[in-house]
Every structure is written in structure tokens, then in C-alpha cells.
Amino acid sequence: MNRLNEYINETFEKVSFIGPWFLRIILGVSFFLYGYGKFPLPSEMLIGFGFPNSIATLVPLVEVIGGIGIILSGFISGLWGQLLTRVFALVLTVFMVFAIVLAHSDWLITADLFKNIQIYLLGVSLYFVFKPKN
């Protein structure tokens, strides 16, 4: 059993860089699509929820730029790539905290929170905030 475990570990260690890329792409595409779906600006949907024009413009832009940024920053090696990844991830994390608290406060401290994509977007964003390397 130990040999099998060692073999599996050795095999997957060679491609371990793929895991974070899956998360990065899923996070980036999700944010991009959520933001793009709110165009044209200002977002009529957000205005319908009572947000002012400035917020109805800012929210989709943050989603689109953050989604693209989290993906593209993965292609930049070294310090700049790590820094940009963390900056974009932090922006998306703060964005998701506000989205959950403001738009979905009825989910807090309930199972509903963990049945929705917002908690996963927050979790993956946090992963990239705390991930030590690209």
C-alpha cells in the first residue's frame, strides 16, 4: 500500500502545477461572466436593486477586470506575478464579502450560504490571497 501511495504521489507531483491553474481559470471565467452579464453600463439590473449609477458601473467592471486579471497574472513569473495575483485575489475577496453581506445577508449562518456559488468564489479568492507562490 505504501508503494502505491508513493507511486501516486510521484506521478501527481509532476503535474501538481495544474491544480492551481484549474482554480485560477474557474475563478477568472466566473467573475468575467458575472460581470459581463451586467453590461451595458451602468447595469440596469443593479439599478433595479437600488444601487446608484456609480456602483452599478463599478461592480461589473471589478468583476470583469478582476476575472481577467486573476488569469493573466498567472502568466507572469516571479515577484510581479505573485503580487498581481494577490492584489486581484484580494480585490475579489473583498468584493465577495460585500456581495454576501449586502446582497445575500439572509444566507449568513445558514446552510444556504454553502449551497451557492458565492461562498466558493470567496473561498477560491482566499486561496490565491494566501497561496505562497504562483
Number of E-state strands: 0
Shape: globular
Q: How much helix, percentage-wise, in residues?
A: over 70%
Q: Classify the beta-strand content into a percent band.
A: under 5%
Kindly report the average pLDDT value. Answer: 92
SSE succession = HHHHHH
Radius of gyration: 18 Å
Terminal residue distance: 32 Å
Please, how many domains? 1
Q: Which regions contain 5 or more consecutive residues with pLDDT less than 50? A: none
Number of helices: 6
The structural class is mainly alpha
Let me know the largest β-sheet.
none
Subcellular location: Membrane
Keywords: Membrane, Transmembrane, Transmembrane helix
Pfam families: DoxX
Transmembrane segments: 21-37, 57-80, 87-107, 113-130
Record keyword descriptors for this entry.
0% strand; 134 residues; mainly alpha; globular
Overview of this protein structure:
The protein has helices spanning 2-13, 18-36, 44-48, 53-72, 78-103, 117-130. By secondary structure, the protein is an all-alpha fold. It starts with a helix and ends with a helix.
Provide a short characterization of the protein structure.
With 134 residues, the chain is mainly α.
Detail the topology: elements first, then pairings:
Blueprint: H1 2-13, H2 18-36, H3 44-48, H4 53-72, H5 78-103, H6 117-130
